[in-house]
């Protein structure tokens, strides 16, 4: 048990230092490690396996919506990047610039893509001629580079992984509809499969994406009360189409501008998963996206019968389509248990000599810590049912946390006092003025998360300036 | 039929200009398009879907071999790249260099990864401590950048897609075994699923990978007689382990150097697929990796019953697990047929009013052009059997071509004359001297493809210099 303690003791507790706890878990659960390249991490097999499950899940959902994948160049010439004014102002300051290719000094330097609206538009200008070519529903899986000053694994790194979807439509109505369809899909994926409750809404003008007409977001809350943007969907209207001159012949044979959207979920969702579900023993991975759903641990490694029974059980479970592995290393059972917990494996299955005699084994739930003795007869069914129970319980636990971390405020003092006492979401009215919002953020560090789709009337006046209120905002402290 | 002609007439014939035919097919089959970034292409949905099938197939094979995926930084600092001398000499001249991040000028410039041996080694130095941590069987799917001067879609572009596998082992025997296991896997994939016959062998010292101890390759021949390296596997021994100081504690508690391998198949395989199987009507995609295996074409689009019968048939086929689509556009049947051929869809299924009455339809094979009338009763089974037949026939056709394009030579004159008369593989002996091989390549443009595993004794003397022969080489003109 000395070894077990060692593994857990290496983690700072959430209460003591949440940020330190977070990086401890990232490293000890072997999700990632620091790299020799400043601001970049190595995503290790266990971390990448979670991301692969996210990719497979979302890719299947996108294909069902008619989206196909493509690959655009990783390097974007500066002359393309500057075409949409607001967009380049947003991204140019954080680009990594290629200035030499081989021995040549480049005249037009190239950005390692920070996002790809510009190259998609450049492509569409070439291939889209008529209404028959629309809609274009495209997506690219890969990574992008943004020169962040402060970095944290999965939350903010100079390279991060994502899909970037880009679509082109015939009318503003169609692009708006698709922007929202994607948002609803994100909501369903994050809630049903990552077990994280979200609040849907629209970003204020201050917070919207550089170059977009409207940005929609799903926001979630971490265990330290801070909020994290977990997915975004942008409607550009024809901002980019005008900048890139993307016109098509409509059914009346008239040349008109197309409309565009873009949207993304990134490897940040792994950061959210860690901070919403994790505890002082480590990670908790929701069964739907867990690379290992069940780990079998034989109790007596020196007992050949025990090892054989455990291996047979492992084979049975795997054959039933459950993602399982078995720990046959020479570590102590206590250490193995601690490792299961650190990696957040939903179910640990312990089997010892006595269990074999009585044709039973012990299932240990990572979400609650409960130990359940079950007969080996229906073990496959038991596990499958339990995985769904765990998935559901993880969502409900997170939902309770969210519900207990939403409050309201009607004055600036109330908003600030409440937020400083306990970081959370606070609902309060706003006048809609960008300058008012910005000054408040600069002063207090509290930012608007979104204009929630479900609007409530908290009061008549703007919580910041007291002028007549335009809408309700969700305020928070963001990652 | 005017439209049909138009589509096909836009392609140059193979005989007239093979290179032009190749790019025509790339563009007309909508595999890719040129981008606004010099030397980079856009891989369009149909091209990417083929690559996705390659990825899924090979990824499953790798996972069966115990390989797990990871993500290493896309940018590599120059100080890491220069650690292995031969390696940096091979790659530095063709790197794209990032010299500015945001507004900062970088002291240590960063290469957009041309290949990732160095970052993998940097990672292993941190995480590998004992024999318990070995083997490390890792792979990364993504793209790399090499500053090529002349580019051609899929064959040579400044960015290309691949997997790069990197493994670390305890002993030279283990790394050699794994290098070869990968080569055999590549052979099976390329032959069984891409329907391209290959010759396995070892590269000569002159042709081996920069920094490797030995490079193994699978070589294939295109319809113009030129050869293409279709997959490579490198055994580094402990070259990199020494340069990066990667040592582990072995079972006797002694610190020893690990050994390393790396291996790759790239999007070049799509170039091979085009040039091995294609003809003057366009692409032919082998059923095992075809994004669309069957396209249903209703003959009378204005006949509602015809459209409904075609749609029902399409649903039936899809439900049976066959990758199908249906062409319900308002183009003429002739144009639709030509499009099926251009895209290399293995089976075209034509159904008209008469067929519905007689409960039949017409299957058209892309590989042979044969039209087969079949009953609708067992259509799913018929299609599945036919797809396997087509897969097999495509391999056999390519194998016959390969067999008729291998010759032998015993003198320099014979080798050069034969190669100039008809580009092909020529077997001939070599003395093993790097300088001899290099001078001959510079003079004639003929290069050694590999030292084939199946050695034959063609003669006693080196075909170039006449000195005693060391081994048989396969010579060719390469892409």
Number of domains of chain A: 3
Kindly provide the radius of gyration of chain A, computed on alpha-carbon positions and rounded to a whole number of angstroms. 25 Å
Beta percentage of chain A is 25-35%
Outline the low-pLDDT stretches of chain A.
none
Counted by DSSP, the helix tally of chain A is: 15
CATH homologous superfamily title of the largest domain in chain A: Bira Bifunctional Protein, Domain 2
Q: Write down the overall geometry of chain A.
A: globular
Biggest protein-protein contact in the assembly: A-B, 56 and 55 residues
Determine the mean pLDDT of chain A.
95
Question: Can you summarize this structure?
Answer:
The first copy, chain A, is α+β, with helices and mostly antiparallel strands and 479 residues long.
What does this structure look like?
The structure is a homodimer of 479-residue chains. Chain A has 479 residues and is α+β, with helices and mostly antiparallel strands. Chain A has 3 domains: 11-277, Bira Bifunctional Protein, Domain 2 (BirA Bifunctional Protein, domain 2), CATH 3.30.930.10; 294-386, Anticodon-binding domain (Rossmann fold), CATH 3.40.50.800; 406-476, C-terminal domain of ProRS (Translation Initiation Factor IF3). Chain A has helices spanning 2-9, 18-28, 45-64, 78-81, 85-91, 117-127, 172-192, 239-244, 268-277, 304-319, 333-342, 353-357, 379-403, 412-421, 434-444; strands at residues 32-34, 41-43, 68-69, 75-77, 96-101, 104-112, 136-145, 159-169, 199-202, 214-221, 227-237, 247-249, 255-257, 259-266, 294-298, 324-326, 347-351, 360-365, 371-375, 406-408, 425-430, 447-452, 471-476. In chain A, a hairpin with a 6-residue loop joins strand 1 and strand 2 (41-43). In chain A, helix 1 (2-9) packs parallel to helix 11. The interface between A and B is large, with 56 and 55 residues. Strand 5 (96-101) of chain A pairs antiparallel with strand 5 (96-101) of chain B.
């Amino acid at each position: 048990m000395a070894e077990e303690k060692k593994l857990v003791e290496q983690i700072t507790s959430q209460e003591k230092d949440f940020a330190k706890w977070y990086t401890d878990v990232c490293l000890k659960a072997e999700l990632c490690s620091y790299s020799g390249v400043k601001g970049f991490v190595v995503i290790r097999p266990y971390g990448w396996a979670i991301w692969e499950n996210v990719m497979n899940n979302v890719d299947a959902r996108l294909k069902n919506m008619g989206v196909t994948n493509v690959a655009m160049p990783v390097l974007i010439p500066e002359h393309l990047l500057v075409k949409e004014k607001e967009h380049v102002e947003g991204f140019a300051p954080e680009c990594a610039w290629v200035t030499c290719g081989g021995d040549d000094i480049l005249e037009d330097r190239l950005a390692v893509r920070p996002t790809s609206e510009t190259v998609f538009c450049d492509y569409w200008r070439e291939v889209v001629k008529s209404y028959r070519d629309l809609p274009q529903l495209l997506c690219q899986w890969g990574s992008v580079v943004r020169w962040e000053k402060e970095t944290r694994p999965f939350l903010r790194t100079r390279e991060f992984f994502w899909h970037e979807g880009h679509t082109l439509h015939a009318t503003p109505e169609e692009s708006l509809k698709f922007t929202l369809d994607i948002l609803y899909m994100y909501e369903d994926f994050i809630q049903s499969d990552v077990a994280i409750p979200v609040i849907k809404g629209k970003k204020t003008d201050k917070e919207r994406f550089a170059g977009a007409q409207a940005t929609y977001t799903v926001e979630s809350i971490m265990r330290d009360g801070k909020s994290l943007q977990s997915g975004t969907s942008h409607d550009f209207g024809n901002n980019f189409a005008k900048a890139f001159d993307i016109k098509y012949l409509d059914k009346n044979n008239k040349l008109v501008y197309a409309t565009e959207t873009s949207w993304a979920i990134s490897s940040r969702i792994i950061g959210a998963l860690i901070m919403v579900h994790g505890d002082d023993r480590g990670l908790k991975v929701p069964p739907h996206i867990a690379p290992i759903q069940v780990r079998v641990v034989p109790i007596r490694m020196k007992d050949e019968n025990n090892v054989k029974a455990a291996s047979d059980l492992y084979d049975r479970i795997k054959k039933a389509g459950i993602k399982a592995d078995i720990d046959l290393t020479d570590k102590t059972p206590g250490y193995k248990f601690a490792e299961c917990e650190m990696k957040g494996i939903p179910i640990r299955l312990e089997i010892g000599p006595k269990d074999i005699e009585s044709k039973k084994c012990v299932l240990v739930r990572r979400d609650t810590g409960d130990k359940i003795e079950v007969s080996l007869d229906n073990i496959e069914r038991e596990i499958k049912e339990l995985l769904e129970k765990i998935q559901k319980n993880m969502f409900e636990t997170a939902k309770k946390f969210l519900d207990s971390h939403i409050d309201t405020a009607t004055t600036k003092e109330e908003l600030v006092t409440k937020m400083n006492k306990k970081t959370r979401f606070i609902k309060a009215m706003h006048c809609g003025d960008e300058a008012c919002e910005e000054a408040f953020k600069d002063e207090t560090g509290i930012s608007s998360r979104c204009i929630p789709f479900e609007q409530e009337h908290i009061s008549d006046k703007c919580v910041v300036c007291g002028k007549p209120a335009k809408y309700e905002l969700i305020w928070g402290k963001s990652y």
